[in-house]
Design brief:
By secondary structure, the chain is mostly beta strands. The chain has two domains: 1-237; 238-330, no CATH class. The chain has no helices and 32 strands. A nine-stranded mixed β-sheet has the order 1-2-5-8-12-15-17-20-23, with no helix packed on it. Strands 3, 6, 10, 14, 16, 18, 19, 21 and 22 form a nine-stranded parallel β-sheet that branches. Strands 24-25-30-31-32 form a five-stranded antiparallel β-sheet, with no helix packed on it. Strand 27 (272-273) and strand 28 (276-277) form a beta hairpin. Mean pLDDT is 78; it is low at 238-242 and 269-275.
Amino acid sequence: MATAPPDGATLSPAAGETATNKQLTVTGGNWYYLYGGKATSSSDDLTGYNLTLDGVSSVYYYSYGAYSSNGDATENNVILINGASSQEVHGGHSEAEGKNANNNHLTITNASTRSSVYGGSSKKGAANYNTVTITGKPEGSDYSVAGSIYGGRSKYEKEACHNSVTLTDTAVNSSVTGGNSSYISYDGTDSVTAAISVAGLASDNQANVNGSEVKGNVTAADSQTGNAANNVATVKDKANNLLHGYIMKRDHWNYYTGLAYEYELDGEATGTANGLAIRKADTGGGSVKLELGATMHSSQDSPWKLDLNLTGFAGKKRGVSGGLSIAYLF
């Protein structure tokens, strides 16, 4: 049953009415928390709850399609539209040992969040078949999501399989991960990773980026035990890039590779000199890109951060470039 909304906000169903179809739509206003469904004192499973944020000015803490302390969270949905803004968002979340968050979905269209988002998340169980779909960004905003993006996450290393993240014509300000069965995250970094696994299972996950801005590495799987298989990370922009990568972690150094095939659909540039047309420059066609690199992270023992990279092109584009970045963290 919905409580009275703050000034400038509306609820459907209205305050005092019960949502018979498990659908709650919130329009405008500033909120502390929003839940499509919530069970904290029982072992109830939560299934089929839907929460829509339509032009909501702010949610200060969390938005959940469903939150279950002692049961499963299955087939729940959160939708953000029309410039809506929230802090952390979960399509569905389960908290207890052996309880799962499966088949939950988060859709963000021309809206934004100020923290991380999850299609489905489980603290001590599995998180499978969850999705995050992000399209566009709010007018005047540089990005749609400020925090990290997870299709599905099993925090205490159970299963995170068949999850996906799809970005289209947007920009994000942190990492993108299809499925994560690990306490490790890439929070605060720029990367695209289909799967992360330490001791849990993370397989058949996807991270798809279409015409969107994501900086950093593109990685199919980051696995310290080999429990990450059949994961795919792809990036396609107007030049139709298809990238696959791999990262190997060590105590102080991370080594990464990236292999891409790029096909420029147009690539034609025209110009004039003194009013006369000059010969057209045409970069259209296919090229292969290989990237090799190593990163040394700072630690309590050493405040230095080092990044080495080498990139080479063959085909329509040809050449080799490299870079060295050294930072001292105070």
